[in-house]
Amino acid sequence: MVYCAPTPLLNGPDAFGCASRPEHSDRVAGNPGLGSFGQGSDVYLGSVQAVTRSGQVVGVDYSGSRQAFYLFGPARGIWVVGVNEVVPDLDAALARLHGIALPEEDARMKATGAPGSAANKTVIYDAEPLPERVTIVLVDQPLGF
Q1: Comparing C-alpha atoms, which of 133, 120, 130 is closest to residue 8?
Q2: pLDDT one-digit tens code per residue, 76-105
Q3: H helices within 79-128, ranges in order?
Q4: CA 79 to the chain's CA centroid
Q5: Region label for 123, one of left (φ > 0), alpha (ψ between -120 and 50) or beta (otherwise)
Q6: CA distance 138 to 29
Q7: pTM of the predicted model, to two decimals?
Q8: Which domains does the chain have, with CATH numbers?
Q9: Which of 12, 80, 11 lies closest to 44, judged by CA?
């Protein structure tokens, strides 16, 4: 059986950390913001805020918890990226983050009664040293923000 728990994304609540064992639902001791649930997953499914034409990927979080799983989590990661998230270069990726993704996510959060969002932790992925660890699924339609 696979257990999945939603994790908030800057561009929508559509990522899941999936664990094959229920005991992974416990929190990591001393870090209530980082659950071992996602760390025990076989695959982590999510998204990022931008992918450049040269292959750089920009991921952003309010707390950094999702980026932690992308960096140090499961042996496999899958990022689903919409055509609207593909940009020419890193400057355009950061402009997209601050000019489109963050304002949209901030408005979405405030509409739920939450205080809003912020781009507190930004990770720029230049390459993945482990072959076949991360798969980017490019969807030929806009997704998220």
Answers
A1: 120
A2: 999 999 999 999 999 999 999 999 999 999
A3: 90-96, 102-111
A4: 8
A5: beta
A6: 36
A7: 0.72
A8: 3-139 (3.40.50)
A9: 80
